[in-house]
Write a structure and sequence with these properties.
Layout (H helix, E strand, L loop, with lengths): L2 H13 L2 H33 L2 H37 L3 H28 L1 H7 L7 H13 L1 H16 L3 H25 L3 H25 L16 H35 L2 H37 L3 H28 L1 H5 L6 H14 L6 H13 L3 H27 L1 H34 L1
InterPro entries: MATE_fam, MATE_MepA-like, MATE_MepA_subfamily, MdtK-like
Keywords: Antibiotic resistance, Cell membrane, Membrane, Transmembrane, Transmembrane helix, Transport
Family: Belongs to the multi antimicrobial extrusion (MATE) (TC 2.A.66.1) family. MepA subfamily.
Length: 453
């Protein structure tokens, strides 16, 4: 890469107008994340239309295990991206390259470990996920294939985070689009033409992630990146790995917490509502994930700007970035709230024509999104602390909803109130998490304001 171009990219993060820079970095990531979320929806739509309602339930049961694989990739990627963005801001390019190389090595190791352990312990894993007939066979088919692709899923997510950390939002968008478009093209081919069922959807996902990683790799290998990664950078260094893990733990806990919650909810839904509620929750989960993707795209635009300027000591720019991101996030989540609350059954009809499934989705979705307008603030707050290297508050805020609130509520309310109590846990946990995040984040912003002078 031309050295002048590298300097321009670095200077833009610290000098360009924050609002236009946030838009520039967020839009490609938002488009890519929206498409990325779309292929999760497409999986469910094709499975629902091509295999049936029980297959949607099998996919819902298997998905928490897939989320653990994604949690490894996301946590390593975000932890290393935090180091890289701050190192580039401080002019420490060698530290940035070492962090990137160690991140790839760690992702490969954990991906392989997941494949081996998951394959050997598949039956106990399915029992833990609550996989019972008539959904178990579908869950088994899907999960076997996803485990094979674990290394590529994790490393593709690391690649995306590192590209964004140095401001290459368009390249990151292309990487995600390759994975998503490949999946969308292969889904109907594998499911309808080759009659591969749920396994076809899984192979489409794995194929897309493999091609995405291959495309991203060339930027780190062919000197097209600020953080060119050489074989020597893959050699593990204890201090670098520790920092990646510590900074990535909040993200891993958030992602794995969602997986644990999904496992608990699926088991409880099977107990109090039956297979139809598991399938309905699978549809709602995919809808919520799709709705979150553009929000995560905004957050990915926020990360390199906040991290770079915090590392450079430009606290006024950090504060302005936070305020603008909060505004955009809140507008988006409020709009999403009204759409899902007003048209739940019509949206669910895209997945299936089964009237029982549509009615159940309409009930579940109104509980799940009841506090959605405040979710943007929660995500921005937790991400901010991670980006600036404050692992403890980031950890606590990411623990709050899943572990400190939702899981205890799942243990307390359903035995007392049954299905109604299970559904009430979602808005209660969101409301309490919003209060905790709001208080802590406001105190931090006051401190940041003082630092900015």
């Amino acid at each position: 890469m031309n050295e002048n171009k590298k300097i321009d990219e670095r200077a833009a993060l610290g000098q360009a107008p924050v609002s236009s820079l946030l838009v520039k970095l967020s839009i490609p990531a938002t488009v890519a994340m929206a498409v990325n979320g779309l292929y999760n929806l497409v999986d469910t739509i094709f499975i629902g239309r091509g295999v049936g309602t029980d297959a949607i339930g099998g996919l819902a049961l298997a998905f928490p295990a897939q989320m653990i694989v994604m949690a490894f990739g996301m946590s390593i990627g975000q932890g290393s991206a935090s180091i890289v963005s701050r190192a580039l801001g401080a002019g420490e390019d060698s530290r940035a390259r070492r962090a990137a190389g160690n991140a790839f090595a760690l992702a490969l190791f954990l991906g392989l470990a997941t494949f081996i352990s998951g394959t050997l312990l598949l039956e106990p894993l399915l029992n833990l996920l609550g996989a019972r007939e008539p959904l178990r066979d579908h869950a088994t088919e899907y999960l076997k294939v996803i485990l094979v692709g674990s290394p590529f899923i994790a490393m593709a997510m690391v690649s995306n985070n590192l590209l964004r950390a140095e401001g290459k939002a368009r390249v990151s968008m292309t990487v995600m689009l390759i994975g998503a478009v490949t999946n969308i093209i292969l889904d109907p081919l594998f499911i309808f033409v080759f009659k591969m069922g749920v396994a076809g959807a899984a192979w489409a996902t794995v194929s897309g992630q493999f091609l995405a990683f291959v495309y991203a790799s060339r930027f780190f290998l062919l000197r097209r990146s600020l953080i060119q990664v050489l074989p020597k950078h893959w050699i593990p260094k204890g201090s670098v790995l520790r920092e990646i893990v510590v900074l990535g733990i909040p993200s891993f806990i958030r992602q794995s917490g969602q997986s644990i919650v999904s496992i608990m909810v699926n088991n409880l839904l099977g107990l109090y509502g039956g297979a139809i509620f598991i399938s309905a929750y699978g549809v709602v989960n995919r809808l919520i994930m799709f709705l979150f993707m553009p929000l995560f795209g905004l957050i990915q635009g926020f990360q390199p700007i906040a991290g770079f300027n915090y590392g450079a000591g430009l606290f006024k720019r950090v504060l302005k970035t936070v305020k603008i991101t909060l505004l955009y996030a809140s507008i988006y989540t409020t709009a999403g709230f009204f759409i899902l609350m007003l048209f739940p059954r019509s949206i669910a009809a895209v997945f299936s024509s089964d009237p029982d499934l549509l009615d159940t989705v309409a009930v579940v979705i109104r509980y799940v999104v009841a506090i959605f307008p405040l979710v943007g603030m929660q995500i921005v707050g937790g991400t901010y602390f991670m980006v600036v290297g404050k692992a403890v508050p980031s950890l606590v805020l990411n623990l709050a909803r899943q572990f400190l609130l939702l899981i205890p509520l799942l243990l307390i309310l359903p035995p007392v109130l049954g299905l109604q109590g299970l559904l009430l846990t979602f808005p209660l946990a969101d409301a309490l998490a919003a209060i905790i995040t709001g208080v802590w984040f406001s105190l931090e912003l006051k401190h940041l304001n003082r630092e900015a002078g």
